[in-house]
Amino acid sequence: MFKQKLTFKNSRNLNLSAVFEGEDKDAPVIVMCHGFHSSKDNPISTGALAQKLVKRGLCVFRFDFTGHGQSEGTIDEITPLGALDDLECAAKIVGKRDFALYGSSFGGYVSLLYARQNPVLALALKAPVSDWNTARVSTNRGIKFRQETKNIGIYKLAENIKTPTLIIHGDQDDVVPFSQSQKLYDSLRCNKKLEIIEGANHDIRSKDLERANVLIAEFFKEKLLTHP
């Protein structure tokens, strides 16, 4: 078992905090993108899933977006495209090896942007934002996010994603409407699966979160470790 704490810079010269961990450094890597107001170390969400991935023989590279967790900057500085830059810089730290990608909510949108223009081994999304126009975001932040992404059509871009993709979403989501993931699923042209968590809202917890994490961990295990 290894656990390596890292710091790397984004294009704005801010130091971002990361952890690289697993049982075997040569095992397939999953890069994890947390949600807004969360972090790489959130024990309920990111941390719990990371443990399941490591136990299945996978490596995890989890990092904090700008203004989150132990990374520099303020939360008001982060935007979807700024976060994409954070992810692109994280990918350079992972190196030349291919990796899989996990994104939750805000991190799901960022992961979609990355996957539509970069090859990834597999893609898992939990309650991902696909359209900021219908996501419930505070007024000022929502205006900024919508303005920045007004010319980005995720549903059209999703047609270019070729990697196996898993989407998990609660059908009572009060922040990111479940209909977004239904439309995203219909737009994808790859090997895809949509798992519905009945009765769950955006803040998936308890047995619903356990189910979601197991589904994600088993998805990555199947796609990255199972050979014909």
From TrEMBL:
It comes from the Bacteria. InterPro entries: AB_hydrolase_1, AB_hydrolase_fold, Hydrolase_4. Transmembrane segments: none annotated. Residues 155-204 form the Serine aminopeptidase S33 domain. Pfam families: Abhydrolase_1, Hydrolase_4. Residues 28-134 form the AB hydrolase-1 domain. This is Uncharacterized protein.
